[in-house]
Amino acid sequence: xxxLTDPITMLKGIGPSKAKQFANLNIFTLGDLICHFPxxxxxxxxxxxxEKLEPDVPACFRAMVMNTPKTAHIRKGLDITxxxxxxxxxxxxxxxxxxxxxxxxLQYGKEYIFYGAVSGDFIGYNMTNPAFxxxxxxxxxxRRVLPVYPLTAGLSNAAVLKAVRQALAVCDAPAxxxxxxxxxxxxILGAERAYYAIHEPSSMAEAELAKKRLxxxxxFVFSAGLSLMRASRAEKKTESYANLDLTPFRAxxxxxxxxxxxxxxxxxxxxxxxxxxMNRLVQGDVGSGKTMVAAAAAxxxxxxxxxxxxxxPTEILAEQHYESLGKLFAPLGLRTVLLxxxxxxxxxxxxxxxxxxxxxxxxxxxxxxxxEATQFENLGLVIxxxxxxxxxxxxxxxxxxxxxxxxxxxSATPIPRTLALLMYGDLDVSILDELPPGREPVDTFLVGESxxxxxxxxxxKQVAGGHQCFVVCPAVEENxxxxxxxxxxxAETLQQTVFPDLRIAxxxxxxxxxxxxxxxxxxxxxxxxxxxxTTVIEVGVDVPNAxxxxxxxxxxxxxxxLHQLRGRVGRGKAKSYCILTSHNKNQETLQRLKALCKTTDxxxxxxxxxxxxxxxxxxxxxxxxxxxxxxxxxxxxxQTLKDAQxxxxxWIDSSGTSERPEAVALRQRIGELFTRAEGxxx
Length: 682
Ligand code: ADP
Ligand code: MG
Known about the structure:
Layout: H1 16-23, H2 30-34, E1 40-43, E2 59-65, E3 70-75, E4 78-87, E5 90-97, H3 101-105, E6 111-116, E7 118-121, E8 124-128, E9 131-134, E10 145-148, H4 157-170, H5 180-186, H6 191-197, H7 204-234, H8 247-252, H9 259-274, E11 279-284, H10 290-303, E12 307-311, H11 315-329, E13 336-339, H12 345-357, E14 362-365, E15 379-385, H13 392-400, E16 406-411, H14 417-424, E17 428-432, E18 443-447, H15 452-464, E19 468-472, H16 487-498, E20 504-507, H17 513-524, E21 530-533, E22 546-551, H18 559-566, E23 577-581, H19 587-598, H20 602-613, H21 638-655, H22 661-679
C-alpha cells in the first residue's frame, strides 16, 4: 500500500514532465490527487436509441457497425474516416478526423457503445468524433458518470482520471474524521466511500452524496478548529485589570461616544475584568467609529501597565492610525510608535527598542509587528483592524506573542451571520450598529457612458466647492483586460485632456509602499483635487474632505467591496455622493448595482452579495482569510454549513481532545488546514 504523502511520480505514466503539469494544479502527492475533486459530471449512464438522439446533446447509444470504415486522404494532415452504424430505431453516419485507428477498431457487423452529439443538416444527422468502447470493455468513457476535472495546459481529463484511478487503487482514502454517530445523524457517507465515489460515482445521485459529505467534512474540520482554539484559550488565565476608569480618555475626545461605541467598550471592559484572555470581534459598518473603541481598549490596557499593539493590513492605514491615535494619546502622556515594513532598518531598530524596553505604550503597524524581531516588554492587548485580511492562523500567531494577550479584532465588512460563524467562530462579537450623529447617507447613482460630461461637470463642482474626489478604476494598467478603465491611463487622460487645471493624483497597488503612503498622505493634506486609484484605498483610509467617489466599471466589483469603497466618502460634514458607471447591459448585473443605490445597510448588502456570488467570491479572491475550500466552493449549501457547525461544536465539547481515532485524525487535519490557510495569505 502506498501513502497519501507519496509523490505522484510513483504512478504508472507519470514521469517528470507529466508531474510538472500536475504541479500546475498544485498536485504533488497521491493525497493531492485524491483531493483533486471534479468540478462537475457528465451522465453517460443512460443508453438512448438513435432516433431519440437530439442535436448538440451528447448521449450514449448502442449500435452495430454497418459497413467497413473508409478513410479518405483529403490533403496533407487531413484524413477523414466514415462509417455507418445502426440500431433498431435508425441509422447514423459517423465521421472521424485523423483517426486511422478507427478503421482497425470498428469492425463490420459488431456492436459498440458510442458517446457523442449529433449535428443536423439537410442530408440527415451526422456525428463527429464520438467516443466508443466495445461491449465487453471496462467502462471508461461510456456507460458511466464521467467526472470532469479542473485541468491545465497539456493535461487531459482522461489523463487526470487515469491518475486518480491509480491513486485510489494503491492507497487508502484520507482517514475518517467524522464520528459514526454524526454521520448517522446527518446522513453523511463514510470517508472511504465518499472519496471513492466523488471520482467514480455509480450514479449522479451518488456523486451528490459524496459531494455533500466532502463539503460537510470541510466545514466540520474548520469549525472544529475554531472550537478547539476557543476551548484552549478559555483555559488560559491572565491577571484581571484593576483600573478601568476611562474618564481621562473620554475627556480628551472632541466628541461624545455613540451608544453603540459605549456598549462595545463596556463589553471589552467586562472581558478585562474576567481574568481570561479576551477574544472579541468588533463589527461595524464603515464610519461607525471602530477606531475609538480600539483606542478605549488600548487606553485601558495601558492604564494597567500593559502595552497595546494595533495591526493594520496596509501601511497607509497603519500610518493613519498612528497619526490619529498618536495625537489623541500624546496629551494623555502615552507614547505611540509606528512600525512598518518600508521603514529603514535603523528606524525599525529604534522603534523595536522602544517596544522592547516598554517605553512605547501603543505600537501601531503592519504585519511587521508580528515578526520575530519585535519583542514587547509587556504586551497586554493586540488589536487587528480590518481583520478579514488576516487569517485564522495569524490570529493564533498574534495570541502567541507576549503572554496570552487580549485580542480585539475589528472588521468593517458586515458579514452574514453564517459566514461570520465560519470565520470568527472562535470569537465573541460586539456590533456597532449606529453611526456617529450628523452623518448623512451617501447618495449613490448608477449611470452609463452617456453621462460622462455630467460626471466631469460634477467633479468640477465638488472641487470648486473646496472638496476632493476619488475616481476608482478596476485595473492598474491598460490592456490587463480589454475595455476596462485602468488607473494609470485614466489619471493621465483626466490630467491632460479633461481637467488640465486640476491636480490629479494616482494611487495603485503596484506602487512602492512609501510612494503609496506619500500619495495618500498628500491627498489627505489636500494637495490634490482628484485621486485616481484602484481598490488599495478600500481599507479604512480617512479623508473627511472627500465628498465624491466615482467608481468606473462598477460591475467589476462585488457589492460588499463597492459598499466598502463608498465608505471612503461621507466621512465629513458635507453631503457626499457616489457615482457608479457601467457599460454592462446585463439586467441582473444592473439590478445588483441598483440595490446598492437604494440601501446603505452593509449587512443587507452583504447578504445580497453572498446570495449572488457565494462565499468563495465574497471578499474577492484571497482576501477573506478563509482557507480555500476545495469542494465547498463548488456548491454552497447553507444548511450543510449549519449542520457541520452544530455537529463539530458538540463533538469537540464531548470528545475533541480524546484519543478516539477520528479525534486524533481530526486534530491532525486541523493543523494542516490552518498551516495551508496561512500559506495562501498575502
Ligand atoms: P470605522 O469604523 O470605519 O473605522 P472610524 O473609526 O475611522 O470608522 O471613524 C470614522 C470617523 O468618525 C472618524 O473621523 C472619527 O473621528 C469619527 N468618529 C468616531 N466616533 C465618533 C463619535 N462618537 N462622534 C463623532 N465622530 C466620531
Ligand atoms: Mg476603521
